Hints:
The protein has ten helices and eleven strands. By secondary structure, it is an alpha/beta fold. Helix 2 links the parallel strand 2 (33-39) and strand 3.
Amino acid sequence: MAQIIDGKKISAEVKAGVAAEVAALKEKGVSVGLAVVIVGNNPASRVYVNNKKKACAACGIDSYEYALPEETTEEELLRLIDQLNHDSKVNGILVQLPVPKQIDDHKIIAAISPLKDVDAFTEGNVGKIMIGEYNFLPCTPAGCMDLIDSTGVSVDGKNCVVIGRSNIVGKPMAMLLLHRNGTVTICHSHTKNLREICSQADILVAAVGKAGFVTADMVKEGAVVIDVGMNRNAEGKLCGDVDFEAVEKKAGYITPVPGGVGPMTIATLMRNTLTAAKVQNDLLG
Ligand code: GUN
């Protein structure tokens, strides 16, 4: 039976560390601020944004919410980003994705100052992740790495399989595992022999977006299984990409959904916002 990796507990530890540093900065007269921009009425985005604001409050970070209507134009959003780029209270800018279809998300991301890009989505920051020299951690993958590290299992030399190749999760996840000397395979919708490849993974990261996609026959005995999925099953219950009940019996370690990767993404965002404030105040040691 797998050990459950407690993302809530580990994220609370990360946030406590951030809160202590934010408090120390405040003593020096430096405040830390995050602008959170949400466009439209996507209910999942509203939940994520509320959780991000709550985490800011818990860490002593000032959050500034900009909730814009569904019909906002690209020009209007670009104007807001330009204003936030020049606002000294704002150390980090987060535009919750997806944005409504009349807005090109590539253009929006490109407009964010790289120094305030706490999602690490801009081209330059993505490039830095590729070469392993970066200030801003990719939020979800870095959270997954913290969860893997919490097991005590070393990535070095291990077979690591990432299912999913998105810019937000799959690709940067593969890079972080590679920086730790994992032997990394990225699987996607065109991959042949998916079951066979996954079943050789010592560390398996699922970022597919399909409930119950990873079944027990795809998992190696004793593997570390990290579930990035956030789906609703037929009964409307929140669940990940992994068939938890079956895989739990075979894996060595497994993350639950909810309470696994989700809280870690937000904890990393808090860490990045603190880093942004340090960089902007010439305090990065
Ligand atoms: N939408 C889903 N995940 C994310 C994320 O990590 N950052 C932003 N900005 N939007 C998202």
